[in-house]
Design goal:
77% helix, 174 residues
Length: 174
């Protein structure tokens, strides 16, 4: 089944059962409000655990742009000789990754990619929090903060973006 079909089905179910959903929400709302920080802490720990699991499971060498940058940062030859001539916007990432490679003690490829992906966890989670705070400040709304935090987590936090060390993660953070 396609994602769009599932979205339509979920929307139709919400319309059909809206009174029951509303009753459930009204029933659990006091408990959620009372224990919101505990719930937030549990979800944060679960999210970071999931991201660490993804990093350990999916980290590896890439033949695309991230692999070229990581190999060059480690001082290895790449199969694309003119990559940085065509993509000069990745020079800063190359310099930062080379610096990390030296700081981490010049590890092998797999260990280095895993380390960079743990940095990605910090960058992506920090970017989600910064995005939520920006929405809160722009809209002056606590609801905007929580909705953007939840949406950011669903779009970026639980997806495997943390297992690919590339400039998009750094750009999202900044």
């Amino acid at each position: 089944m396609r994602t769009l079909d599932l979205t339509y089905i979920m929307a139709a179910l919400l319309v059909v059962f809206r009174k029951r959903v509303s009753a459930v929400i009204n029933t659990i709302k006091p408990a959620v409000v009372k224990y919101r920080w505990l719930i937030f802490a549990i979800f944060t720990i679960a999210l970071i655990s999931w991201q660490c699991y993804l990093v350990n499971l999916l980290s590896g060498d890439s033949i695309w742009d991230p692999g070229i940058i990581v190999r060059t940062a480690m001082g290895r030859k790449s199969w694309v000789t003119d990559y940085f001539s065509c993509n000069p916007n990745t020079f800063m990432l190359l310099a930062v990754e080379h610096w990390f490679w030296l700081i981490f003690g010049q590890p092998n490829m797999h260990t280095f990619v895993v380390m960079l992906n743990y940095v990605n966890i910090v960058l992506i989670d920090g970017g989600i929090v910064f995005l939520a705070l920006a929405v809160k400040n722009l809209l002056w709304s606590t609801w905007g903060f929580w909705i953007s935090l939840i949406m950011g987590t669903l779009v970026f936090g639980i997806t495997p973006w943390v297992s690919l060390p590339y400039s998009d993660n750094w750009a999202f953070f900044s």
